[in-house]
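Summary of Year 1 activities. Much of the first year was spent building the evaluation harness for sequence design. The harness presents a backbone, in tokenized form, and records the residue chosen at every position. We chose the following record to illustrate the format because it has been used consistently in internal testing since the harness was completed.
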């Protein structure tokens, strides 16, 4: 099933990592099943193994959310500079924003994987009354060992999703697949035992749609755009209304969301990728090193130099 490529951009320091590359949309990577722009499934491979596609010199900042279940062999991945080793019976859930690079795949490694694009991931969490699009969940990943029953149950759900995507259309097919995705997400939350943030407002309203669209835009564009007005214009609403919506669902206004997104990226550049202060300032499109330093201290209470020193001592 064909699927399109989200817009990507390569950093000026591309030898270190590539910003928001959709590696799974390369023409020679064939999913086992797909819903265009929403969901990719992998368990059998024609041509390049999708995890092998992450095995390259440049790391990738992932645009999607990943569920990877290893059923045999060993898989080693680096996430934001942290190495994780998965063996048979293990699950890793990787949130968007994480910088990943495959380090090793054993020749006998078997796994199945779901790749969820942001809009679908937000919709799933809306359906179950939660949100992962908040400061506690971004730039995070979770690794757990499943019981035999959990793995069997998860594989069964995965197989049903795949079978329905590839099968003939029928009434309520889309809703059935959506319900299965809700179930597998709840299963994974229970496996990892993490605590997403309950929604503060009505998840079925137009306001929540605006809130999710704002977070998706912020995820992709906060490096270049730091004004509330920019995001309000993209959404076709006023800046005042955008901040009202953000406060309704997260108790943080739009400006705070933007600042936190920029700070998260700055911290990753300096700690994970070891960029200099001037390189970080340039990557984040600040007019000068001093303006970046002032922004960072205003948001965190410490200068970039003080922050890096505290992290490395």
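For this record, the design step produced the sequence shown next.
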């Amino acid at each position: 099933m064909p699927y399109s490529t989200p817009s990507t951009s390569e950093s000026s320091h591309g030898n270190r990592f590539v910003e928001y590359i959709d590696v799974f949309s390369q023409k020679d990577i064939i999913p086992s099943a797909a819903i265009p722009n929403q969901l990719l499934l992998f368990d059998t491979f024609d041509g390049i193994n999708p995890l092998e596609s992450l095995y390259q010199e440049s790391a990738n900042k992932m645009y999607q959310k990943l569920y990877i279940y290893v059923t045999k062999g060993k898989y080693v991945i680096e996430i934001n500079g942290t190495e994780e080793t998965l063996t048979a019976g293990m699950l890793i859930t990787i949130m968007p924003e994480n910088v990943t690079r495959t380090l090793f795949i054993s020749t006998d490694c078997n796994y199945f994987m779901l790749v969820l694009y942001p809009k679908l991931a937000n919709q799933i969490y809306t359906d179950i009354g939660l949100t992962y699009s908040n400061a506690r969940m971004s730039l995070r990943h979770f690794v757990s060992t499943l019981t035999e029953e959990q793995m069997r149950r998860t594989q069964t759900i995965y197989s049903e999703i795949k079978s329905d995507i590839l099968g003939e259309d029928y009434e309520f097919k889309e809703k059935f697949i959506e319900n299965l995705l809700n179930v597998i997400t709840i299963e994974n939350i229970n496996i990892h035992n993490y605590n997403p943030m309950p929604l503060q407002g009505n998840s079925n309203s137009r306001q929540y749609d605006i809130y999710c669209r704002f977070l998706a835009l912020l995820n992709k564009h906060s490096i270049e755009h730091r004004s509330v007005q920019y995001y309000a214009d993209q959404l076709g609403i006023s800046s005042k209304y955008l901040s009202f919506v953000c406060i309704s669902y997260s108790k943080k206004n739009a400006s705070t969301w933007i600042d936190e997104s920029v700070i998260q990226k700055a911290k990753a550049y300096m700690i994970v990728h070891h960029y200099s202060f001037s390189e970080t300032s340039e990557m984040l499109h600040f007019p000068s090193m001093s303006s970046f330093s002032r922004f960072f201290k205003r948001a965190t209470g410490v200068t970039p130099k003080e922050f890096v020193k505290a992290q490395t001592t």
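The first helix runs from residue 118 to 127. Quantitative recovery figures across the full test set are reported in Table 2.
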